[in-house]
Amino acid sequence: MRFPWGMRTKQFKQTAITHLADVYRLARQMxxxxxxxxxxxxxxxxxxxYFGTFEQDTNCRAWLFKILHNVWADQWxxxxxxxxxxxxxxxxxxxxxxxxxxFLKDEFSQxxxxxxxxxxxxYRWAVLLADVEELSYQQIAQVMNCPVGTVMSRINRxxxxxxxxxxxxxxxxxxxxxxxxxxxxxxx
Amino acid sequence: MDCKEFxxxxxLYVDGELSSEAIxxxxxHSSECQSCRRARAELLALRQALKTVVARHQVPTELVANVHxxxxxxxxxxxxxxxxxxxxxxxxxxxxxxxxxxxxxxxTAPLWKRPVSLPAPFFALLVLVIVALFLWxxxxxxxxxxxxDLAPLDGQTSIDPAHRRPAGEAFDISRYDRGQRAxxxxxxxxxxxxxxxxx
Lengths: 188, 199
Description:
The complex is a heterodimer of chains A (188) and B (199).
Chain A: H1 5-15, H2 20-30, H3 33-49, H4 60-79, H5 108-118, H6 121-132, H7 137-144, H8 148-170, H9 173-186
Chain B: H1 3-8, H2 10-15, H3 20-32, H4 34-55, H5 61-68, H6 74-91, H7 104-108, H8 120-144, E1 187-188, E2 194-195
Antiparallel strand pairs in B: 1-2
Helix pairs in contact in B: 3-4
């Protein structure tokens, strides 16, 4: 759908620019500030270029996240700074969530920020889109260009990995030894 | 629903991806099982902590300005781009120190050695102006060059002010006639009376 120039600008401001903060915050979780700004600018350049193809009654925020993910993936492929995560299940992930009151502490936020930065990027995308941006699994699948089943798996593994990082990162050595002994005694 | 099933569906339950029937069953189990209820509460606390962490980062003002330039009209962009380039070329070397992102060689190079980029229309206009000036200079040279057949026979190539004819004296054309009588010469003295021959 093509707009005259002025109307197109107005539409773009009303629909796309209003989500600038969300797009930047998501990009900021994937990389440092300078690169995040470059990625966001490139995202909006592409969004402006292809704004004529955007259906006005659909979710513009999800559309922008999809462009952001594509821009980030293109730049990641160029740089290859991170080893891609394999599908092999990691040893040490408990079958159940072992939430034991660690996450209601006031100083939880700093640990969360650190643990999020340690999370593999594919898991990080899935967890952020689900927990922070509250997109549906179908929308996340469109953003990340993968099946819904893969989205569910990545969210599940991402949350487990986050929990494990938070537990092992904030726990003292003594408590960790005690817990290991308890599991051994319990026959797990 | 037992605890294992509840834990398997915990992600979908918290994300609102379960059917209404499954949600009702999970609600019942959650109300009965303290451990599962606590697991759900901890996962929700983790989600809230993630939102808090992400919300800390504010959008930089320069990013907002840069994004707003994307959908400006192309003529305004060209004008602002030319103006900013002129300011950068003339002003940066004096006012602002080199930024960290520029290479050291480029930052310390003299002004005339720095690369200057011009948009294509300006470059084309510049080329046209240069070509027009060149053609005009050629045409000027061709009109100013004296014709050989009109050169004075006595070797005098220019009019010496000391030899200029006083006003009123007849103009002697024979000095310029090489025997090839012109078809028409009509000269008049500075006094206005015509003289000379017309053939």
